[in-house]
Amino acid sequence: MSQWVNICSIDDILPATGICALLGQQQVAIFRPYHDDRVFAISNIDPFFNASVLSRGIIAEHDGALWVASPLKK
Do residues 40 and 33 lie in contact, with contact meaning Cβ atoms separated by under 8 Å? Predict the structure, then answer.
């Protein structure tokens, strides 16, 4: 995506957590993984269960890459 959309203030997202936002008809999970101003966005839909839950997932790092573990498959 080449266009930014303001969802909320960075301070509204606690470090190591995510939030969900509705953009048009699509749910987006936005994560702030650490104590800095970086944010990452993915679909909020768990691809295995087709459920809108990824914003409540667990943020993890493995081999230098960030991952989101579904709260349904912890």
Answer: yes
Residue by residue, what is the 3-state secondary structure of the chain?
CCCCCCCCCHHHCCCCEEEEEEECCEEEEEEECCCCCCCEEEECEECCCCEECHHHCEEEEECCEEEEECCCCC
Which residues pair with residue 28 across a beta bridge?
21, 43
Torsion of CA 50, 51, 56, 58, to 10 degrees: -30
Taking only Cα atoms into account, the Rg of the chain, rounded to an integer number of angstroms, comes to 12
Q: What is the pLDDT of residues 15-38, one digit of tens each?
A: 999 999 999 999 999 999 987 889
Residue 14's closest CA among 55, 63, 62? 55
- The pTM is what? 0.87
